[in-house]
Amino acid sequence: MARITLEDLAHTYFDPAEGDVEWAVRRLDLEWADGGAFALLGPSGCGKTTLLNIMSGLLRPTRGRILFDDRDVTGLSPEARNIAQVFQFPVVYDTMSVYDNIAFPLRNRGMAEAEIAPRVAEIAELTELTPMLRQRAAGLTADGKQKISLARGLVRPDVNLVMFDEPLTVIDPHLKWVLRSKLRELHQRVRTTMIYVTHDQTEALTFADQVVVMNAGEVVQIGTPVELFEQPQHTFVGHFIGSPGMNVLPAKIENGTALFGGQPVEVANPVAAAEGVVELGIRPEFVRFAPTGIPATVTNVADAGRYRIIDTESRGHSIKLLVDEGEPIPSGAVNLGFAPGQTRLYRDGWLIGGAGR
Amino acid sequence: MSLELRNVSKVVGNEVHIFPTDLTLEDEGFNILLGTTLAGKTTLMQLMAGLQRPTEGEVWFRGRNVTGVPVQQRNVSMVYQQFINYPNFDVFENIASPLRVAGVNGAEIKSRVLAVSDLLRLTPMLNRRPSELSGGQQQRTALARALVKDADLVLLDEPLANLDFKLREELRDELPKLLSGRGCTVVYATTEPSEALLLGGHTAALAKGRVRQFGPTGTVYRQPANLESAAIFSEPPINTIAVRKAGHRLLAPGGLDWPIPGPLASAADGDYMLALRPHNVAIKRRRETDTPLTGNVLVTEISGSESVIHFELPNDTWVSQSHGVHRVAVGSTGTFFADLGQAMMFTPDGVRVKGGV
Amino acid sequence: MNKTADNRAWLLVTPVVLLVAFNALIPLMTVVNYSVQETFGDNTFFWSGVTWFEQVLRDPRFHGALGRQLFFTGTILLIEIPLGVAIALTMPRRGTWVSVCLVLMALPLLIPWNVVGAMWNIMALPDIGLLGHTLNSMGIDYNYTRQPVSAWVTLIAMDVWHWTSLVVLLAYAGLVSIPEAYYQAAKIDGAKPWAVFRYIQLPKMKRVLTIAVLLRFMDSFMIYTEPSVLTGGGPGSSTTLLSIDLVKTALGQFDLGPAAATSLVYFLIVLAVSWIFYTLMMRTEES
User: Domains of chain C (ranges plus CATH)?
Assistant: First the structure.
């Protein structure tokens, strides 16, 4: 087990000497605490897979260092780093039994069979593979194969880090939730540092204590699931997490007051006079129909069962709100109220007064 | 008069894929086929399209018997879960392909392709190849190809399943607007109840090759005719428990004894199946009348704004769904509050007798 | 699957049926016909039953040819399959060199068979041939027209040169289809190169190697043109393989009956071995 530090890390697939190139990962400083359960969450193309490959040692970063505890591993190969990885598509050694698959990393490291047997038995128990140990790995279902991949990682007593790269992609929908929560449970028991890379918010938030949200090659927020939902540090986080995502509206600041369409709006963060593009962020959960407030018209009502998603339009901008099942919905011209504690100002995408870049 | 299945069945070898089915689709809005994988959604669609011939029964379309008329001779378009485009054509040619086959002249092709590409926001990408597009854009291209030929019947087979979460949300919002007012009958297959609800229209709940219920989506959700239909329309899975009604008490195995909620009180004494959707079982008490349930916690899942907790009752596994992030340790004992007033009651063989609105 | 029922579809397969009839069925039936009759070349035939078969199966000449054939096929399989796999393993898997390698590898396959025979024939000439002359000048007594060992070595070298590429291309196709994740996982598991070969590459190549072995078996078992051009079956009958023997019997001596019986036996051997081999491979696949 180890604490993992990424120091001034950056990566491009082009030649940086050419000057203005596209960076897959822009400047990044990050620390993953020893024994934590982390998720790396972002849309496709945000750089999360590049970062994953840098940490596992399959890719050497253009710039910066990776430390495992205090040891610089930047130039080390994956096997020298002692890490494990579960890939998107299950990787098992088809010709071997499940037992031999799990024992494989230990045999490669020259461990005696007498030591291997109890170790494999223990990990098989943990990953619920005990009944299948004698079967050929090729005959297992996709979720079984992913368990084998995981077991091959966990079986090594000295493994520093286990990484998951969208591990549930090929799992049947009705088995996904079982495996999802099993992984978290497993982490609680083994306490190895684990990093789970995904574009799926439910997978990330279910698994991790700390979620790192990436967009366009940079980290936009690191936080607990509650923080990501309640205090998005960037409009992207507000949009990406939660369904539907946060309403983002153009705003102005005048005399220390935030204005939407010329109308003052009470916000939770400091209203400093600011350069750049200023926006107002409020989640649909915190918008209500009110006797007075922002004038709007209801344009669409979508029934989501236990609540409804209401689309409204106010001064040419769309504002969504959620209304519980059974509550009345006014028609025609309405007024919207924003919960002051949950309304925030953003400048150039970043929360004003927040941690920032 | 729309598409009509008259006593249609499909048997392959000894396996019944579709049991005899009568179904008349709606002209307006979406006709959603909701069910798990292998419920028969794809087979049903292929029967509608003419890609498969029913073993028995007739398919009628707009007052004409089209049983056995091959798909080439019908004006049908289809969009699949996989993004299917011609890899060597650019987006324009991909969209234009059905018109070229139909021998439409060049000028008209151009104007129709442009109209559709505007609608689907593909105009800036018309010169790109599919491999240079994101998943969302690829699926938009496939949709554009389906729309451009003004088909009478548009079949969408889980078109959003392979998209990232946020793209799925976006396209799901757009789809009803894109397809309304085109004079085509729309059939949409999905495994996700929330998708069905938000798309609205009418829903056919499918299980094991049978249409269990067909009606307006909200009605099927709120007034399921049978337990199977209620279960199909519940994600997370609906909670069920076998109870005996005796006077003003509901007795369940394992010594559970609950006061009978008002809406169910008028049912005759006897054995029933009680079903309660997960959002009616909360982690916090919301009403005085809520019934507390305690059980061992099996799984905790967290999406952006909701927590889903699976726990054990003496004979059943139940699910609670609450707003906000609540992390309950797996293996601990949790207390949950059920609003039994929202429960539905079914006969032991699954016909609804009480509850539901 | 999605079938449209229409009986006119049968018309579409008619050309294939006709082609197979002319190509395979009619000649085969003719051979069967010859194999059970006696003729003296004047187009009069007499029923002879299984006489020819008995004669062929007891004939030491047939035994000799069959033995040489088995030896030839066995040897080239033992050389070409491992060599092909080894070459495929060393080929680059991406970059500009891929196409260069592939073209180089495909070259021998593009040369007509009789030309291959002629090329080696000239190259191996002891006095003026590049190969023959070099070997002799190195003090190795090499003359494929006089010494059976030299003839065999040349024959096998020629076949290896001509056909290893096929194995390489098939094995290469198998190798490039292995997802990168497998190699990454193996690295992470600390697998040595041998283990990567044994547990990833070999199992993933199994399918194509099955095909390679099958193709090479059938092809080499029926080889005619190249050895016929190179050695003509000599010196003596030392390199007379089954097909050469058959042609000598049929066309050289015009013994149509025994020749027909030999070819049927020959045909049955190829068929039986291929079938057994295929079934065995498929069975291990399933288990």
Answer: 61-286 (1.10.3720.10)
